[in-house]
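Possible regression after last week's pipeline update?

I re-ran a chain I had predicted before the update to compare outputs. Posting the input and the new output here so someone can diff against the archived version. Not blocking, just want to make sure nothing changed silently.
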Amino acid sequence: MEIVNRVANSNLITIDLEDWYQNGVRSILDIKDWLFEGLILREKDFRAQVTDFDWSQYQDHYVVLTCSTDAIIPGWAYMLLTTMLTPFAKKVVVGSKEDLEVLLYQEQLEQIDYTQYQDKPVIVKGCSNKPVPENAYISLIQKLQPFAKSIMYGEACSSVPLFKKKK
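New output (post-update):
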């Protein structure tokens, strides 16, 4: 009896979000050390540190701006840092590494022509070796659902059904 790979012969399309991972160095710039006692932003001192800082070390990096203390940081401070980083960094965000990954995936997911999945069964691969945030999966489903015939999650041999278009 011949063994037939039904998955390989099916019209099932696998989407692996890891394929859209943006390679590059991720860096966190924590400004707590630029604050008086780690808590107070003194504009004159802050601007001096910004001016004296070597921004070129962030050449082609994805940069996360954050403050790990409970300091209240005025919005202009992050904007000022961004003006200094823009000539060097690929992307600058305020928040966490996960916020950065979500934004990078959002940009990638906006570029996809979802009509290629029209009326096709799709499986979204679950396991990945690169950091794929949960929100990337959520965004993918929202963009994919109007087109796909069905959406599953996992691997072809053990998938979880998520959506099936009504006939």
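Follow-up from reviewer: compared with the archived run. Residues 97-110 form the longest helix (14 residues). Marking as no regression found.
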